[in-house]
Specification:
Elements lengths: L1 H9 L1 H39 L11 E6 L3 H4 L1 H15 L3 E6 L6 H8 L4 E6 L1 H12 L6 H8 L5 E5 L5 H6 L6 H14 L2 E10 L6 E3 L2 E5 H7 L11 H12 L5 E8 L2 E2 L14 H13 L16 E7 L1 E5 L11 E2 L1 E5 L6 H13 L9 E5 L1 E5 L7 E4 L2 E4 L3 E13 L2 H12 L1
Parallel strand pairs: 1-2, 1-3, 3-4
Antiparallel strand pairs: 5-6, 5-18, 7-11, 7-16, 8-10, 8-15, 9-12, 11-13, 13-14, 15-18, 16-17
Helix pairs in contact: 2-4, 2-9, 4-9, 10-11, 10-13, 11-13
Amino acid sequence: AGRVLAALRNHWKKTTLGVCLLSWGGNWLYGKHCDNLLRRAACQEAQAFGNQLIPSSMPLKKATVFLNPAACKGKARNLFEKNAAPILHLSGMDVTVVKTDYEGQAKKLLELMENTDLIIIAGGDGTVQEVLQELSNANVNLLSLCVQAVFSKIPIGFIPLGKTCTLSQTLYPESSNQVYHIINATLAILKGETVPLDVLQIKGEKEQPVFAVTGLRWGSYRDAGVKVSKYWYLGPLKTKAAHFFSTFKEWPQKRQAALMYLGPTERPPEEPDEKPPRPPLYVRLYRRLRLYWSPPPKEIPQEVAPEDWEELKLSTIELSIATRNRQLDLTRTEDFMDICIEADTVTKGQFVNRGTQKMRDPHMCPEGSQCIQASRCILQLPEGTEGSFGIDNEEYEAMPVEVKLLPRKLRFFCDPRMREQMLHAAVQ
């Protein structure tokens, strides 16, 4: 023992390194063991769903999974197959996996949509937006059918596998454990609780519309945020560095535009999920004969009141148009999107600090900003305007656009605890 202690004391550098490696290795193995326990418990819960008896005349539920293998730096496929796929298969669903890593597949996606009971999007925010675009932009002839297929009552599940998963903040509790987060999202699909989410339809002058579930950003913070990855070698300082160096390019940074918008719209009552039973044949015949012999009087068309558009000239460091999906209120009586026009009078220090905050919450509306609630808006840009929009973290060329709110158009599966929190918060 004395010789061992002496050897360790004489080679203290190697000893320290060995202890560090052993500690790291033990912690890594313990983490893997905990992840395996989570997977086993989730599979047992999924098996309980799969063991439920169903009538022989009822077909298996068909789920179409849109998987983006490139998400999470190429790790998405492995994450899905290890953590989500076993749960889906054990639940007794008929699962079809479609990889969204090649172009020209919109027609195939549309065909799959005709025979599916639920959609599952496995990836990040970009994957959600990509699937919506593929389904809506197959070609001009199929556009109406595609939009009808997407914006139907088919529920959608979201399995967060990407680098940015904004939707998961609304649908699932926060967790620093990626395996737990994926498993919890997959189990939420089996439990069947859903919430309705708004969608933004963003249309340029000649382009096909783009659909967003989070929102649109245009401005200096977005432009600087895109360049953060270029400063990877600065480690934790890369975000501040990207915003600091962007102030050298141009200062003050302003965006000039004209905005027209309509206010919130009143929310119509919820449509019943179940249709009323069809009346007997003799009742239907009687109604048709009555309409034939005594048709209703022709209604005099009423003049439609012109829409009351508000106009605004703006100068801003950043403009944000966002859905209310982040602050979901299931009991609100009006439908609207949030337009945030940030003041263009900020110091360089404020710009760097606020830019760091916006990396965590891109659509935050800082104090001193002009906030507008609107159901529809038109953004006019000066001729020759350059730069890009960020739409659900995807880059698009900046151009004049019309943004229209499509309230409660998508129904997403969510964790039952999150739905309970939303209802509880609304009552308070």
